Amino acid sequence: MLKKVTTSIQAILLVIFLTTVYPTLSQAQSANISDGMSPLLAAKYIHSVIEANRTIYSELIVERLGATIGLPATENWEKEKALPLPAQFLLKTAEDSNAKGIGMHYRLISLWPINKKNGPQSSFETKGLEHNLQNPTEPFSQLISVNGKPFFRAIFPDKAVSKSCVQCHNKHLQSPKRDFKLGDIMGGIIIDLPVEKTASANNSPLIAPEVVADYIHSIIESNRTVYSETIVDRLHKMKIAYASENWWEDNTLLLPAQFLLDASDLIAQKNVALDFKLISLWPINPQNGSANEFERNGLQYVLQHQTRPYFKKTTLSRKKFFEAIYPDYAVTPACVECHNQHPKSPKKDFKLGDVMGGISLFFTIK
Ligand code: HEC
Ligand code: HEC
Fold first, then answer.
1. Per-residue pLDDT tens over the stretch 211-267
2. Going by C-beta distance under 8 Å and a sequence separation of 6 or more, which residues neighbour residue 179?
3. Of ligand 2's atoms, which has the minimum distance to the CA of residue 286?
4. Ligand 2, pocket residues at CB < 6 Å
5. Which residues touch 40 (CB under 8 Å, ≥6 apart)?
6. CB–CB of 206/38 below 8 Å?
7. What is the CB neighbour count within 10 angstroms for residue 365?
8. Interval between CA 165 and ligand 1 midpoint (Å)
9. Burial 98-119 (b: 16+ CB within 10 A, else e)
10. pLDDT at residue 357 above 90?
């Protein structure tokens, strides 16, 4: 049984690897740079997804379960009955996403790091973190060269979004700063995006929206995988907590679908022109069925092709939009078990690694 599961997981990893390293020719051809986006707008979308997932994890998992069932978040979570720290959750999703080899990288840094390896590694990073303290609304950004390749690098402020951020850092023995307050900037999220050398008319680099969609999707998928494997599956196996639709009343974990949707809602509240949701041909909740022909075709397409997204660009009153459907895989046994057993599920024979539905993405290009 265990062997079978491992093989399936390897199969999934292989699919993910092939998807990201060998995009199909049609996809590469259609990555039309003339339709490109500014790297700053791309970085803002990417950051909004990282920040939303970080906030949901900190507030609805760490802080809430700490207060209601006394579940702690500790550095040694792997060996204890505990949750990973918010920084470790972010790091794990970044490792998962960075390992896909799609070119984008992100990590967490600070001028007052608990862990020295999270300190600034260059004068650019120090300058960026200092800039954020003075100008918390705009990220610090610059074009840089990494091993001879051009990159757009941006540093966004990382704020103390919940009381637990402040309490834990202020009392941590290795923390060089002990007077953080709620809402303070505690550090920065640094995002690197590869850019094309081919420049636009005014010489600033652009990124194709197809590529930006791959980056955004990669972060959503990595958060979904890490949440399902490291939190839902692990705590369930340890009999500490389970995922439930009534997570609030039950003092337990949000369903993976609810985690994703809450992150999307948080972004919508910030007026970022980016939206994402989960859809399926076999939805437990009929509202998650396909809403139009594009979604229907997209779900059929990802079911057949398994690896590549289905997408389109539209122009509406001079605004350009990008829309895509990516396959959503059964990454852990819990996905399969819960859906197959759910009384409202129209499909009862999902298997590990199956495409269960789609992640639908929508954003403004310019
Ligand atoms: C229960 C304790 C705890 C909580 C809660 C916590 N942190 Fe941390 N944080 C740490 C530890 C420990 C590290 C170092 C992790 C490592 O070894 O990389 C860290 C790392 C960081 C870093 C990277 C720089 C550094 O200090 O190493 C930032 C920035 C940060 N946390 C901000 C936050 C924010 C913002 C929140 C709330 C969303 C938060 N932390 C919640 C303990 C905590
Ligand atoms: C403990 C039960 C449970 C687990 C675990 C779970 N789901 Fe779901 N899932 C649900 C429920 C219930 C809904 C409907 C949520 C709503 O009302 O919008 C849902 C929604 C979805 C949807 C949207 C379509 C639909 O069925 O409404 C997809 C796609 C999906 N889940 C895939 C997954 C994948 C992939 C995993 C593993 C990463 C997973 N689910 C884990 C119960 C679960």
1. 999 999 999 999 999 999 999 999 999 999 999 999 999 999 999 999 999 999 999
2. 170
3. 27
4. 224, 228, 232, 243, 245, 255-257, 278, 280, 283-285, 288, 328, 330-332, 334-335, 338-339, 342, 356-357
5. 139, 141, 152, 154
6. yes
7. 20
8. 7
9. bebebbbbbbbbbbebbeeebb
10. yes
Sheet holding 319-329, edge to edge: 274-279, 355-364, 319-329, 310-316
Q: Are 151 and 143 in contact (CB under 8 A)?
A: yes
Residue located nearest, by CA, to atom 29 of ligand 2: 357
Q: Are strands 149-159 and 185-194 parallel, antiparallel or unpaired?
A: antiparallel
Question: Atom 18, ligand 1: which residue's CA is nearest?
Answer: 115
SS3 257: helix
Q: Give the mean pLDDT of the chain.
A: 88
- Our mutation pick for probing the ligand 1 site, out of 53, 93, 118, 170, counting the most ligand atoms within 8 A of Cβ, is 118
Within 10 angstroms of residue 15's Cβ, the number of other Cβ atoms is: 16
Q: Give the model's confidence band at 34: pLDDT under 50 very low, under 70 low, under 90 confident, else very high.
A: low
140 burial level (CB within 10 Å; 0-12, 13-18, 19+) = buried
Ligand at minimal distance from the CA of 60 is 1
What region does 258 belong to: left with phi over 0, alpha with psi -120 to 50, or beta? alpha
**pLDDT for 278:** 97
Compute the average pLDDT of residues 82-91: 96
Tokens 């829309």, located at residue: 323
**Of 214, 225, 7, which Cα lies nearest the Cα of 101?**
214
d(C-alpha 357, C-alpha 299), whole Å:
7
Task: Answer yes or no: is pLDDT of 277 > 90.
Answer: yes
